[in-house]
# Entry
Amino acid sequence: MLTVAIVTLLFVPVLLDRDDFPLATYPMYARQRAEVVAITTAVGVDATGGEQRLGLGIIGQTDDPLIAVGELRAAVRVGEADRRCAEIARRVDDPSIVGVLVVTERHDVVDHVKSGDGFREREVHAECDVPGGQS
Amino acid sequence: MVAPAERLAAFRAIANGFATAYLVVRAPMFVDLGDRAAADFDPVGFLAWLDDPLPYWLVVTLLVAAIWAGAASALGWRYRITAPVFALTLLALTTLRSSWGQLLHFENLMALFAIVLAFSPAADAWSLDAHRGSRVPGPSARSGHPLVVASWIVVATYVIAGIAKLRYGGWGWIDGDTLRNHIASAAARLDLLGGIPAPFAELAVRSGDLLVVAAVLTMVVELGAPLALLDRRLRNAWVGATWLMHLGILATMAIGFPSPLFGVAFAPLFRLELGVDRIAGWIGRGTNRPVNEVISEQQGSRG
# Structure
């Protein structure tokens, strides 16, 4: 009886269609996904205007890409891209990088993996200088 | 189900020991949770009532307490205290990790196993508590029931994941394109975030019809999980297939689910005490009960 009750409890998130922790609906990779995907990220800019990809530790102070992207996307959604840009800029430890852009890029991810060329378009949400950088 | 106390004890040592080791290895990540911006805090689970994130000192305190209690409970020391403390602190830390705008699903089984063990007589054998004089009880439903619950938690987890794919993705999930796009998206995201994509991501994306096979097998593994409870052959087949699925996820998406990859997720499905005794025999040390006594009791309990 207790086992039945516990197993039933596990399915409550399914009945409510509400993901949570530790009882969950485990929806990871369940939804259909298009080939063109919007990815919010941050890029570093050097003195010549060239761009460099920043690492997860710089972008999100984490080693988990889901957390880094999730936080950045949430910041953009609530209009705090400038604040997030400044935070990221403070973490930049490469002296050649003088600025940071917070962007949402649309990529054809299949083309990106196959040929490295999946970029379609970009929207810049925030632009900020790296403290102490020589722009 | 009747089971020897040693089986539940082995599960205790494996599950709580693994979770403790996980906390130690991932300690820097957990400590960083006390240093994140309050604006990013989106609490879930039993932390949902919080308005502000936990202060740094509390996160560190929880982590230290969890590691101490986890090690103690794995060894079966003052189990009636350390096991619930571990379950609570582990739940707090893993819930906190999912409270930053992105629910993660890497630690659910670890937390749920710790909760089951906290309510179980898992230190009746093979524990520091048991060494202090109490007689080890014989096989009983009292030892078996927590293993039944843990086993059902494992299979239900995978069934729920399979249901999610049908619910949110529909039957089209098994045509291979969705899986291909998820693999490609994970690789592209890592690349764009300055990470290193999975070594076999490109191969998987180019593999065409093989992804259809992978998608179908994924659904079979997930929705077919309850078959593992029917008999040993089905259990072994399902565990092997599920482990390979997780290996494939790691190799193509650079996403690792620690508990299944290290086999801990499947532990409650097996007669662990036989494996422990076999290993103890190999290294030339005994357990506190002879192997033949344990086996005889099991044979007796099966009638």
